[in-house]
Amino acid sequence: MWPMIALAGASMASGLLGNGANLKAAAKAIEAESRQVEASNKALIAETARAAGELRRQQTYETIRTAQALQHTKAQAADIVSTTAVSEAMADRVGASAMAVRSDIQRQADTAEASIWDNNELMNENTNVAMQTMLNQAKQGFGVPTIRAPVNQTASIFAQGLVGMGTAYLNSQPKTKAKS
Q1: Which of 13, 36, 126, 176 makes the best surface tag, with the fewest CB within 10 Å?
Q2: Around Cβ 12, how many Cβ atoms within 10 Å?
Q3: Helix (H) or strand (E) holding 61
């Protein structure tokens, strides 16, 4: 009887020790994968930040170009109006025709300015779409560890060992017949 109980106890102890080793190995694997995923995520964040900075740098450059184009357009319109006024004065032209020429010059300047603003708005919208697309791709590329911790089976192994010892004990008892 006692050898069977000892065998069941040894089986239980072996299972408990094996389960502990499995849990330690799994913990090391989880830690290694977590470090690798963390390093990958840090690299992704750094690259995304670099690309976002580059997009904003380009947008700033385009904003400066827009301001320069607007300044140039206004300066050209002012020069043309001034030159036209001098020409009209020298030709002694006044009245509706002179006003019409100035009005036409101003209309062309306003059209050019509106076109510059439209181009700037389109560039800003394209930059914002590119930024959103880049952020969405980065979000999809963000890693999460895939190894899951194994279930601690210590209680199950212990219970199986107790059942084994109990069964061994009961099997070792003499059988009695029921009285009729």
Answers
A1: 176
A2: 19
A3: helix 2-91
User: Which residue's entry shows tokens 């094996």?
Assistant: 18
The string over 147-169, giving b where at least 16 C-beta atoms fall within 10 Å of a residue's C-beta and e elsewhere, is eeeeeebeeebeeebeebbeebe
DSSP one-letter code for 95? S
Coil, helix or strand at residue 153: coil
Q: Count Cβ atoms within 10 A of the Cβ of residue 8 and give its class: 0-12 exposed, 13-18 middle, 19 or more buried.
A: buried
pTM: 0.57
- What is the full per-residue pLDDT of the chain (180 aa) written as tens digits? 555 555 555 565 555 555 566 667 777 887 888 888 889 989 999 999 999 999 999 999 999 999 999 999 999 988 888 888 777 777 766 667 777 888 888 899 999 999 999 999 999 999 999 999 999 999 888 887 776 655 555 556 556 655 665 666 656 666 666 555
Cα–Cα distance for residue pair 27/11, rounded to 1 Å: 24
CA distances from 45 to 59, 72, 112 (A): 21, 40, 41
Q: What are phi and psi of 83, to 5 degrees?
A: -60, -40
Q: For the chain, how many helices (H) and strands (E)?
A: 3, 0
Is residue 160 within 8 Å of residue 12, measured between CB atoms? yes
- Structure tokens of 169? 């004990």
Residue 93 three-state SS: coil
